[in-house]
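Dear colleague,

Thank you for sharing your sequence with our group. We've completed the structure prediction you requested, and as agreed, I am returning the results in plain text so they can be pasted directly into your records. Please verify that the sequence below matches your submission; if there's any discrepancy, let me know and we will rerun it promptly.
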Amino acid sequence: MFTQIWRSGFLAEKMAAPGPGEYFNVGSHVSCLTCLGQRLQGEVLAFDYQSKMLTLKCPASSGKPNMHDVVLINLAYVSEVDIITDRTETPPPLASLNVNKLASRARMEKEDKLSQAYAISAGVSMEGQQLFQTIHKTIKDCRWQDKSIIVMDDVVIAPPYQVDNCKGKEGSALSHVRKIVEKHLRDAESQKPVQRAQAQHTQKDAPTLSS
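Please find the predicted structure tokens below.
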């Protein structure tokens, strides 16, 4: 079983070779208190004895009842572990994974991050970066060329990224991109009063230093 040793608020664990009961059973419900004072509670999905990594399925932070958060916890940074209910029966088989879909999602995420990094290094304005993200949500076939946005190899949007800066062969593609840009600019403009109010509120609440 676990021998718990307290060191500077952290939980260290001394364990011999694992035997029956010396691990967290899949399906058990546990509660953990991290060294930062965060309480995590959920169902055990996996536990790696060698690395002391615990995977929990917790209620969704978004509050949506049909979704869950999957949290990886390093027990080296946990101060308390309580087993709420221990499951001893054999867990149900794991659901099959669509490996191709996961690989495609990982590739798209990588491409998105590389695109963001390129835009920053190229000195693209924040307005240009935000417009690119808006277009990319609807049309995946878009990329950077210097500081211009290329959409479907048919439409070019140059700085300062207004509707009039959308150039290409007249047709459905150009018309569609112009509508996206127009809506994006309209939404951005409508958010400005809210952002100004938030900034003023932040400045008002900021502490002042007196000499």
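Summary note from our side: The radius of gyration is 26 Å.

Kind regards,
the structure core
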